[in-house]
## 1
Amino acid sequence: MSDIDYILYPEWIVPVVPRDAVLTNHCVVISESRIVNICPSSEGRELEAKRHIELPQHVLLPGLINCHGHAAMSLLRGYADDQPLMTWLGEIWPAETAFVSEDYVRDGTDLALAELLLGGTTTFSDMYFYPDVTAERADFAGLRAQLVFPVIDVQTAWARDPEEYLAKGLALRDTYRNHERIEIGFGPHSNYTVSEETLQRVATLANELDAPVQIHLHETRGEVQMSVENLGERPIEQLNRLGMLGPRSQCVHMTALSEGDFDILETTGAHVIHCPRSNMKLASGICPTQRLLDRDINVALGTDGAASNNRINMIAEIQAAALIAKLENSESTAISAATALEMATINGAKALGLENDIGSLEIGKQADMIALRLDDPALQPVNNVLSHVVYATSGAELTHSWVAGKPLVVDRQLTTLSMATITSRANTWRDQLLAFRAQRSSENNAHHQENNPQ
């Protein structure tokens, strides 16, 4: 019996490392979850393998890495659109207070995982309540995940206070300590929803455990100004003073930056997670990605949640990251196609501390891969495969997805999740959420009439 599980024969391979490389007439050899060879197809066909898989008109890529999201919020897609951030939160938080539960998180997470897989994501980072449920669903579906448990100063359905958030999160981290695909980290929401005392505790614990920390940071100019007025320092200055920033820190959004902020990021080695479509939709601002990269500050990509995006499609995020950078810099060479793809692959792996295992197609790395079929009329002629992947695809071209060598999508069909069940449960939650919103609107109108009689 051969030790080779299967060999893939795509028309093109974009390994990401080395940069700008596009291989033709090559194959990828997989054994026991890892890439054991990338060689000319003629050599591969001479090898004994359990399966030889032909992928004509396909490009093979490393699986995409979504470094920030709130999976269960997929059930709130379109719930409070076209509003600024704080008004949007004023609609979202009451709905979450009313509905968030283990069942809600299970069904919302399953919906998100299906969308992620069918859009090319194989690894995701998530910050949401009931992370234990999210972990169970990610494990069942077969994805790779970093789950940062929420820490916030207000009571929610998951915990009463920071003490309980930390106790539950640390217990979950112990449960998944040796898991091959799932890591648990700290997810303090922001410096305006978490006290300095709690932020200090998070920083101390994360440093002791060498655990990842992810936090919403410098999402808007208003957030930064509020911190300056209340604390006398910018949010990133506070976190730096508390010792929270380092190579395992992930700063999400980062749209309002000063030169001093750049210096802190460069000195500490903290990573930036850029969420372009969510930031555009909420008019939060633009992360200065090209300037960050020019300072050797690692920038990765995230979708944020479907409630503020409204897609959790990393290919759409790659395109947005490239285009918005060109507009911001008034320079068409800003964030090239290769750079944008790196932000969704190897840069994401670096941000999660996984660059030795994923983020590129290299011998010895985990077989986290996706295949896109490039035979659509909108993709013809294929003059530049790398450019096509970034600027012309939509995610609908995805036909196959593997994590640790295991197929999770085959011929665009999910192998571990049932779309019929997922859709049915999502529609049940939709009906309840719409009824809740209608009730709130009616109560608000009645309150307004009482206080403003004709």
## 2
Amino acid sequence: VLERRHIVGGCATTEEEIPEAPGFKFNPCAFEILLHEKVPMVRDLELTRFGLKLLRLDPVVFSPFPDGSHLLFWRDVERTCQEIARYSPNDARAYPEFLAFWHDMSALLDPIRMSPPPSLKELLNMVDESQVEETVRVLMLSPKQMLDEWFEDEHVKGPIAWWAAQLNTAPTDQGTSMFCSHIEMLHRIGIQRPEGGTGMLTQAMANMVTHYGGSIRTNAEVSRITIEGGRAVGVELAGGEKLRAGTAVISNIDAKRVFQ
């Protein structure tokens, strides 16, 4: 395993970020595990055996606001509605219906969250014929449009819109309303954090690699993939060192950089 930085983990690390605060560690990027039960990696790699301990959170969301107020989303829907009612009784009444809508949609969305996306035709074939028109209308909305249809208070819309933006799409992007369903999964599935920080997830992966005889090199930036006869046979590091692959070269950076 070749890692450009001084620490493995990519965006899933826990590091000392502030020189003036030695010993205090932060998660600079990723900090929660949302789909643990649906992503087989933790189970397949036996990461709990290699040091990973997951802590369940409740409340699942703490949303602070500039005026010093805040909103908590709990696993318990009724308790969450009591929180929402402090800002809007109407939104508190609408919230369970909003969750019920996405719970019904979960039968459609859950199977495709970790699979190659189906064509629109394949997706619509999974929907009852009487609901096709409304399903298409909703899925073509932006999160902002959808939240404006359901809720009146920005304190309620804001945290849901934030969760809808977790795949690097803006809340105003058309056709991404399905990401509002993340809030429903927080109630249904819950959310977890690795004890000791996000970096404990990737550290468990590193422990697994070394346990089975693999080696990990940090500060080892790959500058190019070596191609012979149309096949990837190894890599060259930024310092000029060449490494040959026994079986394959596996890259986890984006496709544009890989193929260029």
## 3
Amino acid sequence: MTDLWHYLKSQADSGRPILLYGMGNGADKIIAVCEAYGIPVADFFASDGFVRGHSFHGKVVLSFTQACEKYGAENMIVLLSFASSRPEVLEAIDRVAATCEFYIPDVPVCGTDLFNAAFYETHRDEIKAARALFADEQSRRVYDGIVEYKLTGRMDILRATESDPADAYQNILHAEKFRTAADLGAYNGDSIRDLRQYAPDLRQVIALEPDRRNFRKLTEYATALRETGDTLTVHPVQAGAWSHTATLTFHGSGNRNAGLTDAPAEAQGNILPSTAENPYFGKTAEVPVTALDTVCEDVLPNGTHMDYIKYDVEGAETEALLGSRAIIQRDAPALLVSAYHRSHDLFRLPLLVHELNPDYKLYLRRMAGVPAWDINLYAVKE
């Protein structure tokens, strides 16, 4: 079995230029992998109209037109190195992909384990076991497509795995039944706002968010609900979701990618370049973490049934699930678990959820956007 990285190496060795479309942390990660494989990156470019004369990794950033003129659209291989779900950005990406050979490399949000051919062979049995747990054919198609995309980097395969978020809320989770929920990785409250569109009877939400700036906005949202007499009560908790109470290192970017580690980045093996281009550069802090089981005992009245838990905790999903083991086994709440931050999340998280409560039926969907982010594992007891 081959994979994208070995293919790029063979093409680079034959003289074809490899260019990165985009800059920033995503490009840093792809560059690190290319360097490990001995794949030279010829240049960087941005969409026409977005070039401001800046440089990246010592090279002047080209426009797409300039890149085509310099290397020839028919000769260069382009690697997308940023993420987006905005329709106008996806249209721009489609225009580039229609002009030249184009790939979207899969590099993990957390950790350095690449989902390459060797990784697939090492974890083949786990991948197969997780696939067997899914309750419908669409989940298995999405799963197979994501695995194939991760190995090939092909955009057409990735885009074919997209689905409508409303379908999951209405036809898998049945959110109209929710009254009590927990949002782990609540950001500024936006995911609670989204949930309310499908859960009109929602009455209380425990919302965990460790980032200081995000938590301030989350608290403002909770306060506004209370002051306007809203039927929903949000209980903000400034902590990360984990398996137990502790204090951990937090990489705080003030955005959705802010995340926890249980060790310094160097020990974790995270691809976090020690340059100012890294959005986490110089922005680490010690933050409290806790288990949802503990929080619920402290916040909710005794005997409150948990209907739904969302886990989007930037690579700490395994620990967060373990920290809500008692609730999962007692109440079997519907679960939405982000399954894309680490390369093994795609198969180990379904296996873990099944272990925690074998009565769950499992489903997999992926929302629109590139790369393979917003992969959601759903668990429901029907």
## 4
Amino acid sequence: LFVATWLALFMAKQISVPISALLEAAGEARRGNLSHRVRVGAVDELGSLVRGFNDMLEGLELSARELEKRRRFTEAILES
């Protein structure tokens, strides 16, 4: 019974930790912090989800930088 309980808690932790980290990262992204990355050592499907989420945040961060650069360029042209 002890081993079964310990195994169930271990498996639950393997699932809940990456999901909690993804929720936290989604909140950070919603607040505008696109540099936040999820650091969880999952290797299964949740690991793939975490890597995909980090890749998405990286793409959003690059797009935001590019938009800011273009905005500054447009403002400089309009000022002159």
